[in-house]
Structures are given as C-alpha cells and as structure tokens.
Amino acid sequence: MKSLIKVTLVIAAIFASTFVLAKMFGVLSIEQIQTWLEQAHQMSDVLLVMAVIILLFADLFVAVPTLTICLLSGYFLGFGLGAISALVGVMLAGSCGYWISHFYGEHFLKRLLKHEQQRQQLKATFEEHGFVMILLSRAMPIIPEVSACLAGMTLMPFLRFMLAWSMVSVPYVFIAAYSGSISSLSDPKPAIITAVGLTTFFAISWSVFKRKINRADRAMQISKTNK
C-alpha cells in the first residue's frame, strides 16, 4: 500500500503543478473556458464540439474543470450532442493516459521505486483495488488522470480499465450534460444541484473506500506482527 500511496502522490503532484502554472499564467480558468465555448457556439456547433473534446482531452496534461465543461457542453449543445461530445473527450483522455503510461510508465516507476519488490507490491495492490479506485476517481480533480496513469503503469488489462472508466464516465458525463441542458442563466439551479450532488456522492464514496483500505492494511500489519 505504501508504494501505491507514494506513486499516487507523486503523479498527483505533477498534475497539480500544471494546474498551478495555468493559474499563474491566467489560462484555462472557468471564466476563460466559458468565453471560449460561447465564442465557438456563436460560430458553429462543429467548432463547439471540437472545443469541448479538445478541452476535456487536455485534462490529461493540465487540470481543467471537467464537470463545468460537461455542464456547459449540455447547456450549449443540448443533452444528446453535448453528452456525446463530452464523453468522447473524457474517453480520449483516459485511454491516452493509459497507453502513454503503459509504454513509458515502467521507466518512471524504476526511478521512483528503486526495488523490484516495491514495484511488484504496487502492481499487486493496484490489481486488488485499482478497479474500485477508478470507479471512485471522480471524487476530486486530478485523481481520474492519476488512476488512468496507474492502470497503464501497472499493466492492468486495457479492457478491464475501459470497463471501469466507462462505468464512471458515462453516467457522470450524461448526468452533467443533462443538467446543463435544462439549466439557463436565469435558472442555473439544475446545474448547481448536479455539481454539488456529484461531488458529494463521490467524496463520501472515496472516504468510505479509504477507510476500508486502511482497515485492511492495519489488519494485515497486525497479522504479520502476530506471526
């Protein structure tokens, strides 16, 4: 478990640093993204679809407000096209994160975890808990991208990764897009309720998951001590 925590924190710190840099240079703020999408909407729906996909794909490299973009996608494009556009972007980010880490992650792990035993421990731990970790990854920013990278680094089967990624992404995106589609500037309540509800649900689920993992880890340590 220590190896998983260490690698997770390092990858999260890398993604967080891109967010800090974006803030420092004043790019990819919520206001800026909303302005871009409004301008694209005025030009054509095709351009807006491309903008949504590119922004959500960019989340793999720099933290962007994924939920806000999904809500705005539904608001500007309507539920159907908005949901599909957002889902394409989210799926591209996840699958590319997996494959980049699949091919180049081993070198990264060798630099971070010097001993083979630590790397094997990481893979064993993620094999046991990785599927659920991906399912709950929308609990907070950055964690989805971290879990996708971990899946690739630990060589989780791609179909298994895509199953977990789809199980969380499809309802997440569709709920957000639908809420955005029935919201308006005069009545933003559906979008606000959805944002708060999704964040709260995943945060509580993640907290329960962490406690379960901690109990299992303590039980294992006690078992080793008794031996």
Overall description:
There is one protein chain. The chain has one domain (2-226). It contains 9 helices and no strands. It has helices at residues 2-24, 30-43, 45-58, 66-77, 79-112, 116-135, 143-153, 158-181, 189-226. It is globular, with a radius of gyration of 19 Å. The model has no long low-confidence stretch (mean pLDDT 85).
User: What class, by secondary structure content?
Assistant: mainly alpha
Distance between the termini: 20 Å
Average pLDDT rating: 85
Q: Radius of gyration, rounded?
A: 19 Å
Per DSSP, the total helix count is 9
Q: How can the largest sheet be summarized?
A: none
Could you tell me the strand content as a percent range? under 5%
- Low-pLDDT windows of residues: none
Number of domains: 1
Task: List SSEs in N-to-C order.
Answer: HHHHHHHHH
- Helix proportion of residues, in percent? over 70%
Number of strands: 0
Shape descriptor reads globular
Organism: Paraglaciecola arctica BSs20135
InterPro entries: TMEM64, VTT_dom
Transmembrane segments: 46-64, 76-100, 158-179, 191-209
Keywords: Cell membrane, Membrane, Transmembrane, Transmembrane helix
Topology diagram in text:
Elements: H1 2-24, H2 30-43, H3 45-58, H4 66-77, H5 79-112, H6 116-135, H7 143-153, H8 158-181, H9 189-226
Helix pairs in contact: 1-6, 1-7, 2-3, 2-4, 3-4, 3-5, 4-5, 4-8, 5-7, 5-8, 6-7, 6-8, 8-9
Pfam families: VTT_dom (PF09335)
Protein name: TVP38/TMEM64 family membrane protein
GO cellular component, one term: plasma membrane
